[in-house]
Amino acid sequence: MIKILVDCFGGDHCPEAPVAGALAALAANPDLYLILTGDEARLKAELAGKTYDAARLEIVHAPEVIGCDEKPTDVIRLKRNSSMMKAIILLRDRDDIAALVSTGSTGALVTGALVRLGRIPGVIRPAFCPILPTMAGGIVGICDSGANVEVTPAHLRQFAIMASLYLENVYDVTRPRTALLNVGKEAEKGDTIRQETYKLLQETPSVNFVGNMESRDFLSGNYDLVVADGFSGNVLVKSTEGTALELLKKLKKDIYSRPIYKLGALLMKRMFQEEKEFMNYQNYGGSVLLGTQKVVVKGHGSSRAVAVEKCIEQAWRMETSRLAAKIETEIARYEHYEE
């Protein structure tokens, strides 16, 4: 039985989405035990009338909520009774708890995880790695997507190592084709950091490095993993998600602009529904924080129940694959670089 914490407050659809996602995950996985943190009265009200295995569900009262505009360093000192900080402290202190899922403040989650949980030995900086669908029908991960705005080549190499192991062990991607996000495909492109990282990745046997990638090729299906600094990676992910959503809106608007388009859309209704589901980021879970002592998964702030369920599934698969131990072993193979 694997125990996972679910922070039920802080996101846009809390506590409805985390509770519904948690119950769906419990129903799908008999080896799962969930601990919900948050205001006990509100959580019990949300659970009222719902069918679930009460022997595998626990509530920990945490009345405070962290706002996205609060300073992370203040939060970890002053809001120990918040749903997120209570979960992080429980994750640190209890050996029987394996992971945490949260849709709350990204800054507070990263800061809390680093200060309270610590890093896997040898890891310089943990990094986020979300998963998106590709036009070839597969998936592509990007690491980092927001945890580290300023990086060194050593950071980027570790991101590549950790994320490659993540894709191999959680998504069964054999030898993930790994690219470096850059302004051009040629080896000499980019700034000094990108040029030095290119050379380092070429010298890293455990990473299947295939060269630089321009942002327009992100969803092409030609790559399984993209390595980037947190600033560039975050911009790439959000611009990609935003473009997909706006295109869907325009398509819907155009369909309703003429009767003949409506008729055609009616005939293609099933296809449009499939495409909408394919492009819906909610179906791909959250961003895992690679490099911390225990598993942490950050769901999108607007996550609905299905996204929370996927986040819990990600956390469960990371723990069952013993990913942290594999990261520690692989990182130790390479020379340690100071931050």
Which superfamily, in CATH terms, is the homologous superfamily of the largest domain?
A: Isopropylmalate Dehydrogenase
Structural class based on helices, strands and sheet pairing: alpha/beta
Q: In which order are the strands of the major sheet placed? A: 3-2-1-4-12-11-5
Number of strands: 12
Nearest-angstrom radius of gyration?
Answer: 21 Å
Strand fraction: 15-25%
Are there runs of 5+ residues with pLDDT below 50, and where? none
> Main β-sheet, in a few words?
7 strands, mixed
Overview of this protein structure:
The protein has 339 residues and is an alpha/beta fold. It folds into two domains: 1-118 and 293-300, Isopropylmalate Dehydrogenase (3-Layer(aba) Sandwich); 124-290, Isopropylmalate Dehydrogenase (3-Layer(aba) Sandwich), CATH 3.40.718.10. 45% of the residues lie in helices and 17% in strands. The protein contains twelve helices and twelve strands. The chain has helices spanning 16-28, 40-47, 72-78, 83-93, 106-117, 153-170, 192-202, 230-255, 259-267, 269-279, 305-320, 323-331; strands at residues 2-7, 32-38, 57-61, 97-102, 127-129, 131-133, 139-143, 177-181, 208-213, 225-227, 287-290, 295-298. The chain has a seven-stranded mixed beta sheet, sandwiched between helices. Strand 2 (32-38), helix 2 (40-47) and strand 3 form a beta-alpha-beta unit. Helix 3 (72-78) crosses helix 5 (106-117), helix 6 crosses helix 7 and helix 6 (153-170) packs antiparallel against helix 12. The longest helix has 26 residues, at 230-255. The protein is globular, with a radius of gyration of 21 Å. The two termini are 37 Å apart. The mean pLDDT is 92.
